[in-house]
């Protein structure tokens, strides 16, 4: 598996001097890795989530706050990583943090796929 990152930046709008930083993540997976993703139903597993809603609230106000928060939460699942997904950030620090966390998550996914390839076989670990 290879993890490919593409970084871009653009203006937030015509009247704004702010910049939006974007990073696109895409994993190149082998046929065997793709087969393991399908076999073990990993496509919907979340690899990265910026934060969770701890108190969703209730009633109409809770619904409004959940909808507002949902637009701010950044997520990436296995399917999106394989197909490619762009995440927009408000600053470079946030972008680098996300890159680090997604890279670590991709390494964990690779380890899981490597382990999946060993089922039905035997592994010897020298201590």
Task: Give a written overview of the molecule.
This protein is α+β, with helices and mostly antiparallel strands and 127 residues long. It has one domain. The protein is 43% helix and 25% strand. It contains four helices and five strands, in the order E-E-H-E-H-E-H-E-H. It has helices at 31-39, 59-72, 78-83, 92-116, and strands at residues 2-11, 19-28, 46-49, 75-77, 85-89. The protein has a three-stranded antiparallel β-sheet with strand order 1-2-5. Strands 3-4 form a two-stranded antiparallel ribbon.
Features of the shown structure:
127 residues; three-stranded antiparallel sheet; two-stranded antiparallel ribbon; 43% helix
Total helix count? 4
Shape: elongated
Order of helices and strands: EEHEHEHEH
The counted number of beta strands is 5
Distance between the termini: 28 Å
What is the number of domains? Answer: 1
Please list the strands of the largest sheet in the order they lie side by side. Answer: 1-2-5
SS content category: alpha+beta
Rg: 18 Å
SSE diagram, text form:
Elements: E1 2-11, E2 19-28, H1 31-39, E3 46-49, H2 59-72, E4 75-77, H3 78-83, E5 85-89, H4 92-116
Antiparallel strand pairs: 1-2, 2-5, 3-4
Brief overview:
The chain is an alpha+beta fold and 127 residues long. It has 4 helices and 5 strands.
């Amino acid at each position: 598996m290879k993890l490919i990152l593409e970084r871009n930046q653009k203006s937030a709008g015509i009247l704004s001097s702010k910049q939006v930083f974007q990073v696109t993540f895409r994993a190149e997976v082998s046929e065997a890795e793709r087969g393991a993703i399908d076999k073990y139903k990993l496509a919907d597993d979340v690899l990265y989530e910026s934060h969770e809603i701890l108190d969703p609230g209730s009633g109409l106000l809770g619904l409004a706050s959940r909808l507002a928060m949902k637009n701010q939460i950044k997520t990436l699942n296995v399917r999106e990583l394989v197909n490619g997904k762009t995440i927009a950030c408000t600053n470079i620090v946030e972008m680098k943090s996300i890159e680090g966390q997604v890279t670590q998550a991709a390494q964990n996914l690779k380890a899981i796929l490597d382990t999946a390839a060993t089922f039905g076989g035997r592994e010897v670990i020298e201590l």
